[in-house]
Write a structure and sequence with these properties.
Pfam families: DctP. Strands 1, 2, 3, 4, 7, 8, 9 and 10 form an 8-stranded mixed sheet that branches. The protein has a two-stranded parallel sheet with strand order 5-6. The chain has helices spanning 2-30, 54-69, 86-95, 128-149, 189-197, 210-215, 226-231, 257-262, 265-299, 309-316, 323-326, 331-340; strands spanning 41-46, 73-78, 100-104, 152-167, 182-185, 201-204, 221-225, 240-243, 248-256, 303-306. The chain is built from 12 helices and 10 strands.
Length: 342
């Protein structure tokens, strides 16, 4: 009898210990992503541009839509490269030191997903509608899994806009006028091939150092969308703007994948919905302001020229077949995207 009581006591103690540890484990899992002081899930979101820049507009819209949709989240936006350049913020997002960033899609992200440099292929899209169709369709379908393999949750594509050349030396009307000029580009083989095909020099400079580089004459010019040129006040250090629209530039809204995976399915859906809404509204806002930005540039003394676009298209038509470019983006993928938007 005593032996039986002893066995029962041991069993009861074992059950009590098991229940206690199981209960504690569940509570810890529930609180994984929450800030202990507020009970909210905090998202630190970094951008390189100023408060009027396209990436910051997307960030503020994401914050607005997410916080309106759920009391679970608190989004803190850090513009003006407060958290570093695009490379540092992308690395921070991948490592989880920050939860989210919005960066130029074909700028720093090709370090992890080379195929996103399909957006650097010149004259891939005729207009914004075709760009949106490809970005939200075939490009997302093909590349989102690759972003996840690299440690990112790619939420949506926002807009930078079609990129144009500006410089401080002379008016550019045809591709021949590009000869001998130096331009700041993003550090990637496609951009070097682009400038080489135009008989100009490519100089890699980080975006947050670009204004100073232009001001000090380290480069003659740069290439960016109209909104970027206006909001970053590049007109103060650039005289000529040539509307060639060589590539369509997007921004990527990316989140640390482990952070996203720890959210509940319902929270994940809310985050994705907020990103989709923010991207759609941001595109609309940026597009609506383009005419206003062009007027600002003219009013601030820039000479704006409509180029002979055919000469630029002809000079760059075979870039996607160059060996250094093929290593990053297969010609088959380029052709597939072109067929998709026909």
């Amino acid at each position: 009898m005593k032996k039986l009581k002893k066995i029962i006591s041991v069993i009861l103690v074992f059950l009590l210990i098991t229940f206690t540890f199981t209960g504690c484990g569940s509570k810890k899992e529930d609180d994984t992503a929450k800030d202990s002081s507020s009970g909210k899930i905090k998202i630190k979101l970094g951008c390189v541009g100023n408060e009027k820049h396209q990436s910051t507009i997307a960030a503020e819209l994401f914050k607005q839509y997410l916080e309106e949709s759920s009391d679970d989240f608190e989004v803190n936006v850090y513009p003006n490269a407060q958290l570093g350049g695009e490379r540092e913020m992308a690395e921070g997002t991948k490592l989880g030191t920050i939860q989210m960033t919005i960066v130029t899609s074909d700028g720093t992200l090709p370090a992890w997903v080379p195929e996103i440099q399909i957006l650097s292929i010149p004259y891939l899209f005729e207009n914004q509608e075709k760009a949106y169709k490809a970005l939200d369709g075939i490009i997302s379908e093909k590349l989102n899994p690759k972003f996840e393999e690299a440690g990112f949750k790619h939420l949506a594509f926002g807009e930078l806009g079609f990129r144009h050349f500006s410089n401080s030396k002379k008016e550019i009307k045809t591709v021949e006028d590009m000869k001998g000029l130096s331009f700041r580009v993003q550090e990637a083989p496609i951009w070097f091939e682009l400038l080489d095909s135009l008989k100009a020099s490519a100089v890699p400079v980080s975006f947050n150092e670009l204004y100073t580089a232009l001001q000090q004459g380290m480069v003659d010019g740069q290439e960016n969308p109209i909104a970027t040129i206006a909001t970053q006040k590049f007109y103060e250090v650039q005289k000529y703007l040539s509307l060639d629209g060589h590539t369509y530039a997007a921004v990527s809204m990316v989140m640390n994948k482990d952070f996203f995976d720890k959210l509940t399915p319902e929270q994940q859906e809310i985050v994705q919905s907020a990103a989709n809404k923010a991207a759609k509204e941001q595109r609309k806002v940026v597009a609506e302001h383009e005419a206003e930005y062009l007027k600002d540039l003219k009013d601030n003394g820039m000479i704006i020229t409509e180029v002979d676009k055919d000469s630029f298209v002809e000079a760059t038509k075979d870039i996607y077949k160059k060996p250094d470019v093929e290593k990053l983006v297969s010609p088959e993928f380029v052709d597939e995207v072109r067929d998709y938007v026909k």
